[in-house]
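Inputs:
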Amino acid sequence: MNYKVDVAKNGEYTLILNDIYIYSKYNPRKDAEKFINKEYDNDAKCYFLVGLGLGYHLEALLQMEKNKPIIVLAIDEQDITMFKRYSKNPQMMELNNVKIILETELKEDLNLYQIIIPFSWMKALGGNHRFYNLLEDIKIRQMSYEAFSELLDKNFQDNLKNNDPSISELKNVFKGKLACLVSSGPSLDSTIELLRDVKDRCYVLAVGSALNTLLKNNIKPDAVIIIDSQINVVKQLKNKVYKGLLFYLSTSNHEMTLVHEGKRIIIFQEGFNPAEIEAKKTKVEVLETGGSVATTGFSLLEYMGFQSVVLFGQDFGFKGDSTHSILSTSRKNIVSEMPFRKVLANNGEYIHTTANLSTYLRWFERKANKTNVKIYNSSWTGAKINGIPYLDEIILNIILRNL
Amino acid sequence: MGQKYMNELIKETINSYNEYLMRIPSGCQKIADDIRQDNLKSAFTGILHFSEGASWMINTNKLLEQNSITNPINPEKIHEFLEEVNNGLEIQDYVIVADMFEYEIKVFFEECSLYEISEVQ
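Outputs:
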């Protein structure tokens, strides 16, 4: 870690970590306040702030919140040293409600805290730092919720009026069976024949963006799942011959639910407060979404009791800019807030991936460790998922025979 | 093309230029605020619009000058800003980018002068 303190244009100290500015070089205190003002959630019971630095974020948080517990994660011993030496208010660390900790002392359940991660700290730590993946997973979730929170709330309220049944009726109904979870990654184009061969012997759950590819290849899925909150997701169902079962998240785009002419089932998700309240009220279980439609799809299949799940078109990456299967309704040029990084594919090559896709990949890796469902990955050109073996046509047929 | 029509076109262009110039400072502030509040998608869209708008201003300024209507805006400085913004984005030092928009680019455009419509005969 390379810490460097500089004097900002207004005379205050500012901090540069690994050549990245943590605070403004003009008005460090004021700009840190702006960030905290926007992040601060009055309803939170306690706060977990990442990065101590020169204490500007902590100072701003203390202005908003004088009594509730605040834990500050110092990046290392030097972070604490810099704070003591350059902060104008080093006495903040002595306050009763403030606790400065290092990673090794981290024992708290973070779910109880509002986690505040200044983006500059994440960038300065860099992708190889041991905290980075954890911080990135949290930050992406937060940014995605913040970007669409109004829309999510509106969709939720409107979707409740659909009065659709919940997933309860499907709990463990498919015990011992095999499901194919079909996503729309580029590899779907090369595994579509395999899917066609096995489709009648298993349950096919397709994510909305893969529906077009399946229909064009005369494959009718048993169900489609859609979680997207934005209006453009309507095109995944509009003017399609598909009239089968639709699973949708409670915050999915409401117009899309109206366009669908077949049966609909609503899913309430963990981590979205109104959905958790509604689920509790109606005695329905909530599902873990993991942030993407495929991760939600897997949670659903797990809930439905499947013994094995084969992932199709689940690439977590792409070559060049081909993000989706050729016929997918989501094919596009990728634009990311965080740069492309490389990830090892099942075929031994390296492919491009994005911060979001990395988050979903890590979700599947964690899931593979704790679920009883046997998961296989049919994507040869997609990213290797630790704990989820690659499966080809021969192995898939053996599995189907043995079920 | 008649002189009258040409004058109308120039007036319209000057109006658009002036209107755009007046909106730039608040746009710069919004980009900086978006970055500081982690609304990166919105900030990047704003930066894209800004870079297109700035290029349009430079071209318009040049074309008006060819019609003897002068109002120097220092295009080199604008290119320098865009380059620095690009560098900041490349190394993902978004604090630098926010600083640029709030404390340099915004100030620069606040000091640029509007065209006088009366300059057009």
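Remarks. The CA atoms of residues 18 and 114 of chain B lie 6 Å apart. The interface with chain A takes residues 33, 36-41, 44, 91-96, 98-99, 102-103 of chain B (CB under 8 Å).
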